[in-house]
Amino acid sequence: RVAVVGAGVSGLAATKCCLDEGLEPTCFEQSQDIGGLWRYTEHIEAGRPSLYPSVISNTSKEMSSFSDFPYPEDFPVFLPNARLLEYLRRYAEHFGLREHIKFRTTVVSIRKHPDFATTGQWNVVTEADGTQVSHVFDAVMVCSGNFSEPSLPLHCFPGIERFQGRYFHSRQYKHPDLFQGKHVLVVGMGNSGVDIAVEASRVASKVTICTSRGAWLLSRVFEHGYPWDMVYNTRLTSLIRNNLPGPLARALINYKMNQRFNHENYGLQPDKSCLMREPVLNDDLPSYILTGRITIKPGVKEFKENSVVFHDYPEEEPIDIVVFCTGYSVSFPFLEESVIKVENKHASLYKYVFPTHLQKHTLAVLGLIKPFGAIMPLTEMQSRWVTRVFKGLCQLPPQSVMKKEVNEKKKNQVQWFGLSFDEVLKTEWVVYMDMLASFIGAKPSVLRLLCRDPWLALTIFFGPCSPYQYRLGGPGHWEGARQAILTQWDRTLKPTRTRVPAGSSSSFPSLLTVVGFLLLLAAVIFGF
């Protein structure tokens, strides 16, 4: 029996994977419906993520789908939150997940059973309608997300206590009407910050984004008009990125990021070019900077009654409203600190999933990671691995080995990304997916496919590393995986080619035909 905490993206995947492995999941969801982050509500609910109605996915539908359940071809390439929620509801219905979910039920506490050392069991206390109930579970999958507890470090902003205007965390934002005719300051330059700044600039008198670090800016529309992640996350590009010497890799990324526009000219260049930075996805910011709707400034030095002073800028800037886009804290209020300890928004977990010190590995945390790619197939892959660990079909290394790897990983992440906010949670999408897939025997072999299905091998290596690749073989094999891979560009182009004859197809495969075989041979020689 497995307790699943939360019925968002991770919780649905966890519940489905438990069923696939013959386990008995019970999913506890404190709200009245599934969807987690992607279920929009006009009012902010305590303990739940909150999003604004204009939110659109940052990853494309083909790269974001669960690996055995493609999006309908008529869905847009990047999904408004309502369409993504519709997909999740279809997924839950198709695999019969709702009957395993207990709605309006809050997990109050999860504690080790008295005989945990031998059984690995957990005492789980839940509350529904004011009544608490205690359960015993053989394993626990924590899928509660990390977008519920806003991080608002006001002590880092001198003078905020005397500021007479309005300020709030981005979690409270819903509509831009409150910015009408105002001078607005957005603190922080993540995806939410830029989204809110763009929306505010359409009605505000002036909008300023302040960032002490800068950021790389990507558009959803990438090279040749294709979705960014279908071009960026391929096996070939991942192989190149991860085998180049560090300085050369960083120089390549600098070059690629500045191809569309020079970030320095727009005030966006990351402050430490030697460190990797998570890109921000937005299609409008450069043009809004060019047209004067948005101004980029350095970090806040201090607030005054009705203005703000920036570092290295002597003059004050009048401000009416401040939106703090300062991220979220990670917490597990239902768990004891002895089970999972969070420091600097980071929990020391083996492969971002398992606590390293438990005598029995019967508790896993899903989704506590920031990949350069889609989170949905990644949490599904985590779930596939975790359920097989629970069943004893996959073994974890000794505690000492896991602890050593976690510490080394953290040190390497600091060197690449810098230790600020949740940078240590970032990871390379293809590498991480392949690693977990290899644990369960589901990683596709390009070499084997080259002999018996060369066209599929070419598509897998040079094309997008779509989630269907991890259903071609091994546990959870899906008969439709090959067809899903070969038709992924058709589903991508279908909703955009609305006045082109249906018989037209993507030019991407023809490119593979011309150069594919020779490049694959070279990659095999040097990469495998």
- The count of strands amounts to 26
Q: From the 3D structure, determine the CATH topology of the largest domain.
A: FAD/NAD(P)-binding domain
Tell me the number of structural domains. 2
What's the CATH first level of the largest domain?
Answer: Alpha Beta
User: How confident overall, as mean pLDDT?
Assistant: 90
What topology, given as strand order, has the largest sheet? 3-2-1-7-24
**Terminal Cα span:** 41 Å
Give the percentage of residues in beta strands.
Answer: 15-25%
CATH homologous group name of the largest domain: FAD/NAD(P)-binding domain
Give the helix proportion (percent range).
25-40%
Question: What's the architecture of the largest domain, going by CATH?
Answer: 3-Layer(bba) Sandwich
Structural class label: alpha/beta
- The total count of helices amounts to 17
GO molecular function: flavin adenine dinucleotide binding; N,N-dimethylaniline monooxygenase activity; NADP binding; trimethylamine monooxygenase activity
Enzyme class: oxidoreductase
Membrane topology: Single-pass membrane protein
Family: Belongs to the FMO family.
Q: Mind explaining what this structure looks like?
A:
The protein is an alpha/beta fold. It folds into two domains: 2-148 and 329-432, FAD/NAD(P)-binding domain; 152-219 and 260-326, 3-Layer(bba) Sandwich (FAD/NAD(P)-binding domain), CATH 3.50.50. The chain contains 17 helices and 26 strands. Strands 3-2-1-7-24 form a five-stranded parallel sheet, covered by helices on one side. Helix 1 runs parallel beside helix 10, helix 10 (376-390) runs parallel beside helix 12 and helix 13 (446-452) packs antiparallel against helix 14 (454-462). The radius of gyration is 24 Å and the shape is globular. The protein starts with a strand and ends with a helix. 41% of the residues are buried. The model is unreliable at 415-424 and 509-514 (pLDDT under 50).
